[in-house]
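> @MW can you paste both from yesterday?
MW: sure, first one:
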Amino acid sequence: MNQNELNPDASPQAAYGARLRRLRKERGWTQVDLAGRMDYSAVHVSGVENGTKSPTLRFSRSADLAFGLDGTADTFEREYREIKHGSLLEGFPEYVKHEKTATEIRLFQLGLVPGLLQTPEYARTVAEGDVQRGAITPEQAEERCSFLAERQAVLARPRPPMVIVVMDESCLRHAVGGAEVMERQFQRLIDVASLPNWVVHVSPFELGARRSFNLPINLLTLPDRSVVAYAESQARGHLERESTAVLPMLTSYHQLQAEVLSQAASVAMIEQVRKAIP
């Protein structure tokens, strides 16, 4: 195969290809050798190395197995996810890294049930809606659902974080999918509220101007007790580490918790909305 010069600084995809080539050459493998180990064609490997073919989740996992990177902190799968997700919302890949180790997670969400609480059916319906609007491809929808499932699975670690969720009432009133999808989603919320490391609140419409936030916000308490905040709009995300900016948001979150429905009242509202499903 012809070997052109690669510029890893050109783009995240170029950096992925350059790293693939570097690790291959360090082992003395040809593209044919690597292709055989990954169950891909040499042409496919060449395309990824040169940046003319985008890596996929399957390709990345195969590369990790071939290079013995599976289970390490520096996998091609991680790099792939940063390409797929980091390019959409700034700060999100780094946020997810912190989320994996956080001791406390505080969430505020509008419109849709927070991702960490979504059932597979609910998450798939949301993703399919984006596909229908042309915002993402079917493959990206599948990757998004897979990525969310992995984030949820991390929360089941031996020492899980404390997760406090405040959902605007609109999260309950916004119908996603049919009655069966919403029924399962409401049951998921009720089940989670009974877990010792989860607290679920609903911010009722009546709260009005006393609601602290007008955009979704995530606050993570890290093992060293520092706090980082992540907020996003429709097309941009931002991870904030400076305490001068984060601490006022934490204060606002505490104020919000004091205003919203208790967990018992929140579960009662969820049950009420659930029973009204046609």
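MW: second:
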Amino acid sequence: MRKIIALLLLSLFLKGHAQTKGIFSKDPIVNLENFQKQRLYFGFYLGFNSYDFKVDYNKFDAKPKNISQDIEIKKSTGFNVGLVADLKLQEYINLRFEPGLYVTKRDLSYPTSYFLTEPTSSQKTREVNSTNIHLPLLLKFSSLRTGNVRPYLLGGVSATLNLSSNSKSIDDNSGNRFRVKPWTTNYELGFGIDVFSEYFIFSPSIRGVFGINDELIPDKDFNNSPWTSKIESLKNRAVFINFTFH
């Protein structure tokens, strides 16, 4: 699937530039010269994500000195799809709203030492599926346009609604149910580049997302839970790679 999406994006990119003299040539044809003079414009994006967790251990049970005793986070590559609304505030500053659907999965692998008795493989592993409605509000700081290329920086805040949080479940980890809070807040930093083709703007970007609030829901028998008793906070960390089309 990733290869198919990559080939599709590449073909769209090449098609848009087929009739130009080249983006990075000495004297390129200037495409869509007046496009970003619009006050408001829209677009859409496709992309990939890699979510992680930042684990802080509680002060009563400090993080083990031996790193092999840490909870291991096994990441996977998810996908993103969403819309873009871009409001021009100033010549080089835009306000962007990028609501989207982000799907991902993480596995938490617990050390045997966390358990009083020898755990089974299913007890040692917790699968955290996330179907996120991601709502970022970002400021885009663009540089001076050079030919058909314009780099930019992004920064802002976001709220995330996890539709797969299990927050309303009456079961906890004793019933094989890992629970997190449905809403989290984050701050985001990234950079990208606008590439102006003959018919559209193609904007690849990469962005880091850093969770602000703890999203873990402790187990009911907190003191005796090997899954949550040692954790003080569990916060989102993620990298987004998006391909935006205007």
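> thanks! The chain has a mean pLDDT of 84.
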